[in-house]
Write a structure and sequence with these properties.
The complex is a heterodimer of chains A (about 160) and B (about 425).
Chain A: H1 5-26, H2 30-35, E1 37-46, E2 59-64, H3 65-76, E3 88-102, E4 105-118, E5 121-136, E6 139-149
Parallel strand pairs in A: 1-6
Antiparallel strand pairs in A: 1-2, 3-4, 4-5, 5-6
Chain B: H1 10-13, E1 14-15, E2 18-20, H2 22-25, H3 27-38, E3 43-47, E4 56-62, E5 65-71, E6 77-81, E7 96-98, E8 101-103, E9 110-112, E10 117-119, E11 141-145, E12 148-152, H4 160-164, H5 168-176, E13 183-184, E14 190-194, H6 198-204, H7 211-214, H8 216-221, E15 237-242, E16 245-249, H9 251-257, H10 272-282, H11 284-293, E17 297-300, E18 304-307, E19 310-318, E20 321-328, E21 330-331, H12 335-348, H13 356-369, E22 377-379, E23 388-389, E24 395-398, H14 403-416
Antiparallel strand pairs in B: 1-2, 2-22, 3-12, 4-5, 4-7, 5-6, 8-9, 9-10, 11-12, 13-21, 14-20, 15-16, 15-24, 16-17, 17-18, 18-19, 19-20, 23-24
Classes of the chains: A alpha+beta (about 160), B alpha+beta (about 425).
Bound molecules: fe (ii) ion.
Fe (ii) ion (FE2) binds near residues 210, 211, 214, 355 and 359 of chain B.
Chain lengths: ~160, ~425
């Protein structure tokens, strides 16, 4: 299948946005990271599979926009001990695919590997990520991010950085 | 027990106000705990609502042992060992489900939901085998209190009600908060692993001294009334029920506030359906008392923690390796309250929780602290001078006092000193 020019331009913009979001998370740049979110955002890290109903079942994170803000303020408080000292992080976002478009919303899929180093040791976090990006001016806002950890059905260590 | 290893002198390691760090660090002691605590005393396994229908099952554990909690066709709850009686393969690999029969994939031996051996492949290979002697192993004593299912590997000993003692009343108090008088466990579990000894978790659950510090980050940014419950001026109490069960009794603070649902940080206008159902179920006077007092904060030794709106189950994996299984409590007949309990639970607990990520950080740091053992004491003497007996004869003291830890260790010592 031949991608059109418009598609490859969009793909480029999407990639740059995801890489930027990943770097802000890796570098604990919480305020800039929070700026990426749309007002009706959902940040979701399900537990026990990818297809649970977050309104009925427990998730590791199921934040609306105000709870994303609370999470960031806690991290910025200087007393979020689990991230003080902070985990050292670097992540790779790959296998990026445009999954669909609805109005201004663009659905994107990707795989992610995060390498975390902390006093506890070294931890690898692998996941399938789904994003909904919304056109906003020249760039995007993040309307939805779902991080389905590969091992989210098993016992996992504290994950208090931004996944 | 290893004949070479001398039995530790527990009385030298556990004093009334201090304990040795080796108790959290020594793998040999962990092995002894499996034998003398986890494979002997009553241990919480699961809730009846997790296997509501005949032939429902869910995988659980006691200590390191994998357990199938299964409901037989006749409705009876069984705690079966997940190990084929042929050559030891795990009979059931699936986390939960419904099946009248569990077939071992190794050689097709099959067992009923009650654990009985039903048959095996190519039966002509066995002559005169007594099937009744080859059913799945089972936890010899199974008992349930208000839907909470416990198992004991000791075929004789105190009954579950004797074991729970005064702490049974806290479970009653919890169930009273449901319009239909029952708890349901239906929201699935978060499984949070920590590189720390299980007893750090056990002791922290009713430690009222730490929240003002460990949780100051969330208290400072969320508008939460929890912080005041654990201040120096708090009228809340720590309580030792005996048998290792301990409580942080927040009712004195809630009664002072004298406001319905204040314990849950909300008001009746936000949950009109719940309030109406409570009034209908208990009458306005009793419903009012229940909705002021709220739910308990109680640690049932050794592994069931009821934390107002959620339930934790502590699973030991090794001397410095544990899992906290946690889920929102759900009250039968309270859909509007249940939704908020799930939302709040998701925010506060689990690997990314506003509260539990910091508690778990402390567990892991304390575990690392134990490696420095020039002076090996952990000091637990806070509030000894202001302990007193409550009207039921249980030891109580200030919300921030270490009555719970002292009670836990006293019971621990009595279990470990048993032959
Ligand atoms: Fe805590």
């Amino acid at each position: 299948m031949l991608a059109t020019c418009a598609d490859s331009e969009l793909m480029h913009d999407v990639e740059q946005f995801l890489f930027h979001e990943a770097r802000l998370a890796d570098e604990h740049r919480y305020e800039e990271w929070e700026e990426l979110w749309a007002d009706d955002a959902i940040y979701w890290v399900p537990a026990n599979g990818e297809n649970i109903d977050p309104e009925k079942q427990m998730s590791i994170i199921y934040d609306n926009r105000s709870r994303i803000g609370l999470r960031v303020r806690q991290l910025l408080s200087g007393k979020r001990y689990t991230q003080d000292p902070r985990s050292s992080l670097r992540r790779i976002i790959g296998n990026i695919e445009l999954l669909g478009r609805e109005g201004d919303d663009i659905r994107v899929g990707a795989n992610s590997i995060v390498f975390e180093s902390s006093a506890r040791g070294e931890t690898l976090w692998g996941s399938r990520n789904e994003y909904t990006l919304r056109r906003a001016g020249d760039g995007f806002k993040l309307a939805r991010k779902k991080v389905s950890l590969v091992n989210n059905d098993r016992a996992i260590y504290t994950m208090s950085f931004i996944i | 027990m290893n004949m070479m290893a001398p039995t530790p002198a527990w009385g030298d390691m556990i004093l009334p106000d201090r304990v040795r760090g080796a108790l959290y660090r020594d793998p040999a002691i962990f092995e002894l705990e499996l034998e003398k605590i986890w494979y002997r005393t009553w241990v919480y396994v699961g809730h009846e609502s997790e296997i509501a229908n005949p032939h429902d099952y869910v995988l659980k554990s006691i200590g390191l042992q994998p357990i199938i909690m299964s409901r037989g066709g006749d409705g009876q709850v069984h705690l079966l060992l997940n190990r084929c009686t042929h050559r030891g393969n795990q009979v059931c690999p699936k986390e939960k489900g419904n099946s009248p029969m569990h077939t071992c994939p190794f050689h097709a031996w099959n067992f009923g939901s009650d654990g009985k051996l039903l048959g095996y492949a190519f039966p002509e290979g066995y002559e005169g085998l007594d099937k009744s002697k080859h059913g799945l192993g089972r936890v010899p004593r199974v008992a349930s209190y208000r839907g909470f299912v416990f198992g004991s590997f000791a075929s004789e000993g105190p009954s579950l009600e004797e074991h729970l003692g005064g702490a049974a009343e806290t479970i009653d108090r919890l169930c009273d908060n449901a319009p239909e008088g029952e708890i349901e466990i239906t929201a699935g579990f978060l499984k949070h692993r920590v590189k720390a000894n299980w007893k750090f978790i056990l002791e922290n659950e009713t430690d009222g001294y730490h929240p003002a510090f460990v949780h100051s980050s969330i208290f400072s940014v969320a508008d939460s009334a929890i912080g005041g419950l654990y201040g120096a001026k708090s009228t809340a109490l720590t309580r030792d029920y005996g048998n290792g069960h301990t409580e942080l009794d927040l009712r004195p603070e809630f009664r002072k506030r004298d406001a319905l649902l204040s314990w849950f940080g909300t008001t009746p206008d936000k949950l009109p359906d719940y309030v109406a159902r409570m009034n209908a179920a208990y009458g306005e006077k009793k419903a009012r008392e229940i909705m002021i007092d709220g739910t308990p904060h109680v640690m049932i030794f050794p592994n069931l923690f009821i934390a107002e709106i959620q339930m934790f189950v502590i699973q030991p994996l090794g001397v410095n390796d544990s899992v906290q299984h946690v889920t929102a409590l759900q009250f039968k007949g309270a859909p509007d309250l249940n939704r908020r309990m799930r939302q709040q639970t998701m925010g506060s607990v689990g690997p990314a929780g506003f509260l539990l990520a910091d508690d778990s950080e402390m567990y892991e740091r304390t575990q690392r602290g134990m490696e420095a053992h020039d002076t090996d004491w952990v000091f637990l003497g806070r509030g000894e001078h202001r302990e007193r007996r409550d009207e039921d004869g249980f030891l109580v003291a200030h919300a921030t006092d270490e009555v719970p830890s002292r009670g836990i260790w006293k019971h621990y010592r009595s279990l470990m000193e048993q032959p």
